[in-house]
Design brief:
The chain has one domain. 78% of the residues lie in helices and 0% in strands. The protein has 20 helices and no strands. The protein has helices spanning 3-19, 24-57, 64-77, 80-91, 98-114, 117-134, 139-150, 160-169, 173-201, 217-223, 228-242, 248-267, 271-304, 306-315, 321-336, 341-359, 363-378, 385-393, 399-422, 425-428.
Length: 432
């Protein structure tokens, strides 16, 4: 069989299994095993199946996943989300749309320690949406800004999605964190500008005319001290990585330990440790099952030589690289509406990543663009996870209102993707 036929059979089997409702991890594992048998024969199949899971997962780099998950849970247990919102709200006092703007700030602050969009949306929605409702904000804007603000958790370091992309493609996690920082800040600023524009066009969406500012400059500055835990964790984790004091694994371990001490100091109960270990362990098992399945699927696809053939075909198209890059990202927009970000990255990277390298696209730039598409998927119907999280965290919130509230932020995300493609130095300049 030709590489196209062989690779097509493997991908076709994967699609059939997914349509039948098989969990993604097992669908990847099954199609990968069949692909290995077709490409390597019975002897090669027995050897790979017997040795691959251990040899693949024995990579020390994977330790960073459970450590960041544990840090995220402990940061949530400290009540950091509520203090982040309180601090941001005081800083935005008297500003039209100030509560919505404060929500974006709080999401950005919490994202620096959670690395998870779902954790960010869940934590902030519980404190921010009731406040916005009480101030007369529309349900659409209140829910939409929390759901969209939560997506900052997948871009602002330390992002779990960036780590998964780095592990799946062999890209430096340090470089990914460095390249994602400016786009992450830009996204938060763009969201805030969008909220200000909404307040200008439709003042009733942000509760009408804002009350006169009652909080002085000194108290606003003092309120930032409420976020000292987030700043400390960000400095320990991201700061130590940027400055070269620690590897991502070491920084994650230090961050998890510091977050644990903070949680114990705040709550004083060791049950927090057990709960954190149990929940982060459960999520880690799910993620690692996906990674093993994706690794075997990647091995089968690579052995079939399908990525090489597709890369040669794409590079032979007479079109600018930016146009080809947009065409590559379009399927991600569709996939992101139906499956979660980790699964999407692990499913697609074996095929798509070699193509981008043939086109000369920098792996960090492509990683940031993929994560931006994941952000869009988190607030896009029908599966947008952040929208469901906000609906589940807030009483009497219609799912349709959440998705409608996300629409302005979807437009902002698409414009930012075009901006990053047009000016890749926004991502690449910090890399030197």
């Amino acid at each position: 069989m030709t590489p196209i036929e062989l690779g097509g059979m493997i991908i076709g089997l994967l699609m059939i299994l997914l349509i039948m409702g098989m969990p993604i991890a097992f669908a990847l594992l099954t199609s990968g095993m069949v692909g290995v048998y077709l490409t390597r024969g019975a002897a090669g199949f027995e050897y790979v199946v017997a040795t691959f899971p251990y040899s693949y997962m024995s990579n020390f780099a994977f330790v960073v996943v459970p450590l960041f998950l544990l840090m995220s849970h402990m940061a949530f247990a400290t009540g950091l989300s509520g203090r982040a919102f309180e601090a941001a709200n005081k800083c935005m006092d008297g500003m039209r749309g100030g509560l919505a703007t404060a929500t974006i700030f709080a999401c950005a602050i919490f994202s620096t320690v959670s690395g998870s969009s779902i954790a960010t949306a869940s934590a902030i929605s519980r404190v921010a949406v009731p406040e916005m409702r009480a101030a007369g904000y529309s349900d659409r804007l209140a829910a939409g800004c929390v759901a969209a603000g939560g997506t900052l958790g997948v871009l602002i370091p330390p992002s779990s999605i960036l780590i998964i992309y780095g592990l799946a493609t062999g890209t430096s996690v340090v470089q990914l964190f460095t390249g994602a920082l400016i786009p992450g800040v830009m996204t938060a600023i763009a969201y805030i500008l969008g909220i200000i524009l909404i307040g200008r066009v439709n003042p009733m969406a942000v509760g009408g005319r804002p009350a006169a500012g009652r909080i002085g400059l000194a108290e606003r500055a003092k309120s930032l001290l409420l976020t000292w835990e987030a700043m400390l964790l960000f400095g320990i984790v991201v700061g130590s990585i940027y400055l070269g004091f620690a590897t991502p694994n070491e920084a994650a371990a230090a961050g998890a330990f510091t977050a644990l001490l903070m949680a114990l100091a705040r709550r004083g109960r060791f049950e927090i440790l057990w709960q954190g270990l149990r929940e982060s362990g459960s999520i880690t098992c799910s993620v690692f099952a996906l990674i093993i399945g994706a690794g075997l699927f990647s091995l089968a696809i690579t052995t079939s030589r399908l990525p090489t053939e597709v890369a040669l075909w794409v590079t032979g198209i007479d079109a600018p690289v930016t146009v080809l890059l947009l065409l590559i990202l379009l399927p991600f927009l569709v996939l992101g509406a139906f499956i979660d970000g980790i699964s999407m990255i692990l499913l697609t990277m074996p095929i798509v990543y070699p193509i981008t390298q043939q086109l000369g696209v920098h792996p960090v730039l492509f990683g940031v663009l993929v994560v931006k598409v994941v952000e869009i998927g988190l607030i896009t119907p029908p599966v947008g996870l952040n929208a469901f999280v906000v609906k589940g965290s807030v009483e009497n919130m219609a799912l349709a209102d959440v998705f409608r509230g996300c629409l302005p932020f979807l437009v902002i995300e698409l414009l930012l993707i075009l901006l990053l493609i047009a000016f890749p130095q926004i991502v690449l300049w910090p890399l030197g």
